Amino acid sequence: MASESVKFLERLRRLESQLDRLASDISMSYAFNEASCRALWRPAADVYETADDVVVRIEVPGLHVEDIALELHTDTLLVRGVRREPCCEPKCAYHQLEIPYGYFERVVPLPRHIRHEEATATYTEGFLVIRIPKAEREVQLATVIQLRI
Fold first, then answer.
1. What is the pTM of this model?
2. How far apart are CA 72 and CA 55, in angstroms?
3. What is the pLDDT of residues 37-51, one digit of tens each?
4. Residue 129 — φ and ψ, nearest 5°?
């Protein structure tokens, strides 16, 4: 009986994880045209805090800096971009196709105790790293900040 309970709890955890991902995908704002929305993919992201910063690290190899857009809102970081398919020979037959191409969007919740105006972003070796210094108190943004890489 105990093993059945463990199996049930594990299935429940997997379902919760899938529902969280679905909710995140649904809450995205679709600023792209209909054709591009069909190609949305979701790159892996790490979010952590250091003593001084909130750090968001997103794995997006194969992109050009000009294909990435970053928006800082009061309590959210919006990361949008596109990974373009490489030019392939006209008559090629794929044997395996696992790398996602097309548009992506990640919405990352942030704490309200951050200094938005001092945020920095770098893109090195396939990783986009956004660092946002912590603040002493909550900060409410009047406008959206477009962050440059």
1. 0.71
2. 13
3. 545 789 999 999 999
4. -120, 120
Distance CA 24, CA 148 (A): 24
What CA–CA distances, in Å, run from 52 to 42, 48, 55, 112, 139?
A: 28, 11, 10, 14, 16
Domain boundaries, the chain: 31-147
Q: What is the mean pLDDT of residues 67-78?
A: 94
The confidence score (pLDDT) of residue 15 equals 76
Query: Six-digit token pair at 89?
Result: 């020979």
CA 78 to chain centre: 7
Euclidean distance between CA atoms 122 and 129, whole angstroms: 5
CATH 2.60.40.790 fits 31-147, yes or no: yes
